[in-house]
Design brief:
This protein is of the alpha+beta class and 304 residues long. The protein has a single domain, classed as Double-stranded beta-helix (4-Layer Sandwich). Helix content is 23%, strand content 25%. It has 8 helices and 16 strands. It has helices at residues 3-8, 46-59, 71-79, 156-161, 165-171, 184-190, 199-204, 239-253, and strands at residues 20-23, 33-36, 61-64, 93-94, 97-104, 134-143, 151-155, 175-178, 208-211, 213-215, 222-224, 231-234, 259-262, 269-273, 277-281, 291-298. A hairpin with a 6-residue loop joins strand 10 and strand 11. The protein is globular. It binds succinic acid. Residues 103, 119-120, 126, 137, 151, 279, 281, 294 line the site of succinic acid.
């Protein structure tokens, strides 16, 4: 379902809010914009929604500053963009809010992890291993460390456009497999956060096949759609050829000229477009606390 369809039945407010959308300081190539003055706890007008949608298609990462919103308000705003996807690691849901995945290194009184503490350690697009990967994710800061904890975003339209013509031709028509399980056991062996998956969880994350280059349904631009975390192989190539080509694309797609580094401010909510960017959690010193709430919006099946 597109965002326009998701929002179709929503009762919008007749009142616009007074806010600005401007490039984030230090943004390269139009990646990243901050939204200042908008209060997401107040009802949104259709015009305001459409302004945000255009900015999302253009800048791919929207940083909503100073959002004092509740989990229910985050869920309500997220639903304007499409149905919400429930993460397979149910134990990290925020109690009472199954749509919210806690991304956190905190533990409860029994010492059990409260959230997915090692989320985003490899470059990825959220839920690309689903038949319908994510349109976008919204991450709302609850507790931030005094140092570290940044999130990096890499523009996959710009990465595609910078490829040599011969490589663009080679990629046209290629399909790749995306698997949640590709690095799961390796991450689990290094981390206290990842539980052993049950058979039901494994069945829920069967691999999916998507075009290596897809066309964004909103802005019509092509983008690379492979990632180190989830893309396991390119169909129709030998194992060696597939590995070599994927390594080349992984290295190309996250070069510094395509990257915006988000340094979190209190109450930021960041809404990124999983069809246009890859992202990476840069890491938090283990003695510092970090907690964010993530909602994940379902998108359409990618098309070339
Ligand atoms: C994620 O990959 O969704 C989490 C990113 C982060 O914690 O910075």
């Amino acid at each position: 379902m597109s965002a326009v369809l998701a929002a179709r039945d929503h009762v919008f407010s007749p009142r616009r809010q007074d806010f600005v959308i401007r490039p984030v300081p230090g943004a390269a190539g139009g990646l990243g914009a901050e939204v200042v003055g908008l209060d997401l706890s107040r009802p949104l007008s259709r015009d305001d929604f459409e302004r945000l949608q255009s900015a999302h298609w253009e800048h791919h990462v929207l940083v909503f500053r100073d959002q004092r919103i509740t989990p229910s308000e985050q869920v309500a705003f997220s639903r304007l963009w499409g149905p919400l996807q429930i993460h397979v690691l149910r134990q990290f849901q925020l109690p009472g809010h199954p749509e919210i995945l806690q991304v956190s290194n905190l533990r409860d009184e029994q010492g059990q992890p409260l959230g997915l503490g090692d989320a985003g350690q490899l470059w990825h697009s959220d839920l690309s291993y689903k038949e319908k990967p994510s349109l976008g994710s919204l991450l709302h800061a609850q507790e931030l460390p005094e140092e570290g904890g940044d999130t990096l975003f890499a523009d996959q339209h710009a990465a595609y456009e910078a490829l040599p013509g011969t490589l663009k031709q080679r990629l046209a028509g290629l399909q790749a497999e995306h698997s949640y399980l590709l690095h799961y056991e390796a991450l689990r062996s290094k981390s206290p956060w990842r539980p052993a998956l049950t058979q039901a969880q494994i069945a829920e994350v069967r691999p999916a096949v998507h075009p290596v280059v897809h066309t964004h349904p909103g802005n019509g631009r092509k983008a690379l759609f492979v990632s180190e975390h989830f893309t396991s192989r390119i169909l129709g190539l030998s194992e060696g050829e597939s590995r070599t080509l994927l390594q080349q694309l992984f290295a190309h797609s996250v070069q510094p000229q395509f990257v915006y580094r988000h340094q979190w401010q209190p109450h930021d909510m960041v809404f990124w477009d999983n069809r246009a960017v890859l992202h990476l959690a840069a890491g938090t010193p283990s003695h510092l606390r970090r907690k964010l709430y993530r909602t994940t919006v379902e998108g359409a099946r990618p098309v070339a």
